[in-house]
Amino acid sequence: MAEARTLPASTLAPWAEIVPGVGRTTVDDLLTRPDDGWRYEVVEEVLVRMAGSGEEATNIGGIIFGALFAFVRPRRLGRVTPADGVYKFQGAETGLLPDVGYYGAALFSHVLDKKRPIPFAPELAVEVASPEQTSADMAAKAARYLDGGTRLVWIVWPDARAIDVWRPGDAGCPSRTLHADTADHLDGEDVIPGFSHPMADVFDI
Q1: Strands (E), 60-111
Q2: Based on CB atoms within 10 Å of each CB, which residue in 5, 27, 80, 92 is the most buried?
Q3: Using one digit for the tens of pLDDT, what is the confidence trace for 53-93?
Q4: HSE on the CB side for 81, CA within 13 Å?
Q5: Domain-located, residue 32
Q6: Predicted structure pTM score
């Protein structure tokens, strides 16, 4: 796993580092990248990378994945994807890998080749922020998801034990912030109706 490091500012993908010396990259190229400890994404044909997650972030992501999977799978509501799921956005050559993603059963018919990236933005994207990523960085990533068609974004802040909830139309700040030291619950809203999970459990690691 790559060592964490300070990521240089970028207006294209401020949450990540642009990979130097690499030309035009397609989202399909992500499926053949070597496993070298970095997590790669493509933003408007530009290859970017982030350091791998530590134990804390990995476990928080796993708890959220597990809770969503346990709710979605028995009801056949859709698909819940782990951190290596590649979503290819419509339009610009952009592919992001949320720590947890979800898309509903109504979209199954749009997946024509299951060996290629998922051909649309996730309906729900969950991103667990690293210590190097700032609120501005992750606001930019939330905006990228929402502009691509994502309906609900959860940005997880391990140190603050909080989750920012972003919805379409949010202008520069999240709709609300949930806290683990309260009775707050993650809510699937109209994206995963009926899903609710206590914030305190998300950070009980």
Answers
A1: 78-81, 87-88, 95-96, 100-104
A2: 80
A3: 889 999 999 999 999 999 999 999 999 999 999 999 998 89
A4: 21
A5: no
A6: 0.93
Show the domain range for 130.
53-83+98-202
Structural tokens at position 17: 């580092």
Residue 178 lies in a domain: yes
Q: How far apart are alpha carbons 155 and 196 in whole angstroms?
A: 16
If you search the block for the tokens 């951190």, which residue do you land on? Answer: 83
104 phi-psi bin (left φ>0, alpha ψ -120 to 50, beta other): beta
The Cα–Cα gap between 10 and 18 comes to 8
CATH code of the domain containing 115: 3.90.1570.10
The domain total for the chain is: 1
Distance separating the N- and C-terminal Cα atoms of the chain: 21
